[in-house]
Amino acid sequence: xxxxxxxxxxxxxxxxxxxxxxxxxxxxxxxxxxxxxxxxxxxxxxxxxxxxxxxxxxxxxxxxxxxxxxxxxxxxxxxxxxxxxxxxxxxxxxxxxxxxxxxxxxxxxxxxxxxxxxxxxxxxxxxxxxxxxxxxxxxxxxxxxxxxxxxxxxxxxxxxxxxxxxxxxxxxxxxxxxxxxxxxxxxxxxxxxxxxxxxxxxxxxxxxxxxxxxxxxxxxxxxxxxxxxxxxxxxxxxxxxxxxxxxxxxxxxxxxxxxxxxxxxxxxxxxxxxxxxxxxxxxxxxxxxxxxxxxxxxxxxxxxxxxxxxxxxxxxxxxxxxxxxxxxxxxxxxxxxxxxxxxxxxxxxxxxxxxxxxxxxxxxxxxxxxxxxxxxxxxxxxxxxxxxxxxxxxxx
Amino acid sequence: xxxxxxxxxxxxxxxxxxxxxxxxxxxxxxxxxxxxxxxxxxxxxxxxxxxxxxxxxxxxxxxxxxxxxxxxxxxxxxxxxxxxxxxxxxxxxxxxxxxxxxxxxxxxxxxxxxxxxxxxxxxxxxxxxxxxxxxxxxxxxxxxxxxxxxxxxxxxxxxxxxxxxxxxxxxxxxxxxxxxxxxxxxxxxxxxxxxxxxxxxxxxxxxxxxxxxxxxxxxxxxxxxxxxxxxxxxxxxxxxxxxxxxxxxxxxxxxxxxxxxxxxxxxxxxxxxxxxxxxxxxxxxxxxxxxxxxxxxxxxxxxxxxxxxxxxxxxxxxxxxxxxxxxxxxxxxxxxxxxxxxxxxxxxxxxxxxxxxxxxxxxxxxxxxxxxxxxxxxxxxxxxxxxxxxxxxxxx
Amino acid sequence: xxxxxxxxxxxxxxxxxxxxxxxxxxxxxxxxxxxxxxxxxxxxxxxxxxxxxxxxxxxxxxxxxxxxxxxxxxxxxxxxxxxxxxxxxxxxxxxxxxxxxxxxxxxxxxxxxxxxxxxxxxxxxxxxxxxxxxxxxxxxxxxxxxxxxxxxxxxxxxxxxxxxxxxxxxxxxxxxxxxxxxxxxxxxxxxxxxxxxxxxxxxxxxxxxxxxxxxxxxxxxxxxxxxxxxxxxxxxxxxxxxxxxxxxxxxxxxxxxxxxxxxxxxxxxxxxxxxxxxxxxxxxxxxxxxxxxxxxxxxxxxxxxxxxxxxxxxxxxxxxxxxxxxxxxxxxxxxxxxxxxxxxxxxxxxxxxxxxxxxxxxxxxxxxxxxxxxxxxxxxxxxxxxxxxxxxxxxx
Amino acid sequence: xxxxxxxxxxxxxxxxxxxxxxxxxxxxxxxxxxxxxxxxxxxxxxxxxxxxxxxxxxxxxxxxxxxxxxxxxxxxxxxxxxxxxxxxxxxxxxxxxxxxxxxxxxxxxxxxxxxxxxxxxxxxxxxxxxxxxxxxxxxxxxxxxxxxxxxxxxxxxxxxxxxxxxxxxxxxxxxxxxxxxxxxxxxxxxxxxxxxxxxxxxxxxxxxxxxxxxxxxxxxxxxxxxxxxxxxxxxxxxxxxxxxxxxxxxxxxxxxxxxxxxxxxxxxxxxxxxxxxxxxxxxxxxxxxxxxxxxxxxxxxxxxxxxxxxxxxxxxxxxxxxxxxxxxxxxxxxxxxxxxxxxxxxxxxxxxxxxxxxxxxxxxxxxxxxxxxxxxxxxxxxxxxxxxxxxxxxxx
Lengths: 396, 396, 396, 396
Description:
4 copies of one chain form a homotetramer. By secondary structure, the first copy, chain A, is α/β, with parallel strands linked by helices. Chain A is built from 17 helices and 7 strands.
């Protein structure tokens, strides 16, 4: 499921949807591969709106969601499932695709506008409890609290989900600088585990390299506190060397001009290997991940997992299929050393390589961040446009 | 159909598959939107192999092909259809999707290894005629000769297809420098029309801007020769400012590290507008085009066509849905001026912006280009690897 | 001398000053190394104004001009001299520095505002003749017509200078696309030789690589016409891959933000070698060349010339002095392979790699290009500022 | 003087030479402008060797040193002087240029190979005392300890210099991450002031922006410790966004391919303004600074200082002289808004924007860093070359 939580009923922002993977399997030493790029992939395929990002596709176009599930599943067991849904419909699709497979279904919650608007613990927990009720009724296998920018709210979510008695995973969308109140990643991890999470990590907001640096800090924090948990990582499929602590949403390119930042399959293989070496066993991806990126994780870790994904029937490792190309210089690219060392050109000589993220200095509690019932008016937009001037790498 | 021709039975290289659009509709002043990015999209979705690029997906995974058809169709009439197939299976899928819609089905051929290996006109035409027989049997609506690097072979293809009496479109994968024998675009266009084509243009190999420059030269050539034809354009969805006359296959990034070059939807809108202004009425895309790129063409030309594509139900023009985002600086991006003028950063500060294309100076007739029955041997590959050294922007 | 011509009394624009090298020496097979970067070097040292670029330094700060002469002279014979001056003062300095050395002094003329304002042949030749009189009186060794954008005016200049009976060199500031009326480089070279020039080539406006491509076309033009002349090349020390036919003055960075484009000494060595291989024997540099760039030419061609320049006493070839550095990884840079293959980073991740040149579409005869006696008024400037908007990579 | 200390007799590495400015003047509220780019400027002019960087130019080419003094002095009072010398000769030149001007002469010391080789406090202080003796004999006005990577050694230097009773300035070549033992900038500043320095700051190793961030941390450290000192800043004239804690020497481009990183005069004006706003009153530059960069500081701070530098006679502020250019689009550049907002292109589309610094993980005490009496042998170099492979952005 996940998406119910991912994009809560009260209207949340973009986030990386979740894929489940059970605590028990991780305990048994399995590697779990998660794909959370569903919303942004469905936007490009025409089923989801950018802005509200509500994945009503689960209800309106179940065949499209099923098709994407199929492309993204990296193996016959289809462990990664149940991702996009609006409440019950999503659960039903996930259950159906998982049916007859040895698969798990997860239900998830994510950060709430309620918290950002400054409400108290009881009010925020009530929102989470409402969502939890559906997941319990549908009897999902485990629960995920994901996409949190503030550890305080994330811990509230974990505490609420833990009331169900099911295993809980928890990820934050933070980088090495920590949460938006400045709590460092190591301390965040400690608080999540103390609140009841048995899997902790990061998702969304930053590129693979940055996410691994963050999880490393989490791991070190847990070790220093003598706590134990499985580690999880679901980065963007976009390079974000220029992101500050607030992540890719502040980049001027978000969400409609991120193309030049898309990672290659080789970037993903490198990421999967480093994640594995770091001790992470729930290795996935978030916004921007396409089925071929997920396949790259599965191919890189095939030696450890003992099998190649089904999708690799049409994909020779490290470009080996190119040995059949008609041009000899393309045949010469049929090897690991070539792709591993290539520095791909951007093909955009009039564009910079980095951006200055927008960041208007407004934080929790600021008037501009208050939830409003009505659509933004023309007048409000015009005022925003004025503020924007001189703020990004617009040429005009 | 298209793909049957696009990737001929005797095993062709990558090319941009075709989408049909009838001469009669163009005669009547309609705009036709074509999507030819099927093979590369199916590779990423896991159904096609890079290297041989044979789209057996039509037989093996018809549901995946149908799904992609649905996402790419930019309107209720589903004019653009029947694209990927292996001979008859492809025809059948195309016919099925078109059924009940006011749609056309096309059959196509493309350049042959036979020609590159130096065989004569009779032998090459025999190959085309063999393919034509299937299309005639399945009674496709019109025919396409596409993805030709040499005008000589392209003209032979048009002459063969024209034997059927059906309308013929013809595109070459050339840039402003002309075909690989140095024949300029204007002269190529003239020869194609004289051979019988009623629609001429370019597909694949170059980015939108370069393709438009090439079609402009074709148009000028036809005008100078007082000939008439409809114009057609199906560029890559990759920026290729660094490509020489041989196109993107020679770029070191081809085919597995092209991500940084992917065009944005705004690049596509700009392209669609300029193509329209240039007088092109068959406006499509080739490798790299995803459904949201095709949607961008349809959105840009909605005023001229009189309607928005179905896919735009979930896509406000020029980012207008962002007015509902929670961050005020993202709401400020909900307007045309923002996206139109943004210079997107690559997020890759360690990479260059342009590449030197591989080009080993081998041409038609060279031993290395000869078709060989057996797979490339390990020894042959090693010799190629040695040649490659110092040839591309590999860091090592 | 040179500069007197280079920046004529009636107020010319920036141009690359000239350094002489005698026809006789070239005839005898010598290589001549010329440095024409004086004006822009003196601007940075504080002796010349950008805009008018009049090198009154010769009169006001003769010691600065002498010092720069000394640094730039690449050998004890000081062949390259007499560069910047205002009429007679410049001649006198050049003669003084050349005194006691086996050196030559040249006088030069360059394109005139008179021609751009549309005056006829007689009027333009009268300007050149006036300058020639001073050179004849001071008995310079040879004459140069340089920095011409139109072959018509350049040929007039050569014809005038040839009246003196002295050898004449002629360079144009054009690229491979030819002069501003579209006359190709090969045809320009032919006309210059027919007008009386015994040395022809290019100076200023383009980077070393582009200049060599242009001279190659000149050479081919002369060969086709069965004419003979020595070849000469004085490129910018700035990379200009993005320049159109009008050269670097149209780049938005001209003249005060060209730093990121400055060539390295290794770029210059590569240029010198390629120039030599192409048959060019008058190998120099123009705007942007600093003494260490000139030294690099002399070092690269030391084997052919038989000696190293004096300045190399403090400069080991290919970084060999670095073998004495304290850091081991810097010592590891003490070799040719390192510097030859290094792709230097720009350190400017927020900037693009290429620019779109300004080019307002005004040409000879346009009102905006008319010479005006009075300074540009505030009102005129404001109108220009308005035109500029949206024209360059200004961020605001 | 400065340089005698800057490049000590026992053979130091590259560093930015110093220019003096007296404590008394700073106490009185004056702004002091310092130029420390002498060694690298003289290398390009042909008088100094890269590698050993010993400025024997003071002895061998006093006229070249005097000429550079003259170009760099930003005002008639010639406050900034006495920079490059070898011991006494340098003092003599500095005294001569300062003669008749209201100018100060400084003597300086910098970090020693002795310290890096692991010697104790007494040995290191003996080196400094030996240099101090010369400065005392020549009666310089004040003393500078500069270019230190370790606060321990810097404090020893300040303590030694302070024995003379003269005012002492102290700068370290560190960034925001602190000294090479990890001592943060704020703590470094505190220790320098406690050792006796009345002016503290940074020089060399990092670009203007990074240096200002470091000085800001120093300032905050002093405020927290309730200590007082004047602040000083002498950054590189190279952009170094990719430098780690060890500075620009580790960049693969050091020292012979730094051209693309050179700052513009507008970068310098921005730096000068921000430095002033931060409370820095000794505002200068180090390696890479040319006379026109120093002029830019003086022009930016002309309102505060009450006068323009002499060099500005030939340099209109913010490009105003361009109003006299012949091309209208260049005249349109005659204004502050243009240059202030321009993002200059690098003109290097095949190069990256950032580099990974070399850093072999060797620190104080490592065998490879030990001072050796003999030149590096061929064999030693070969071993270094092997280590280098895969370490930098070499293409091969």
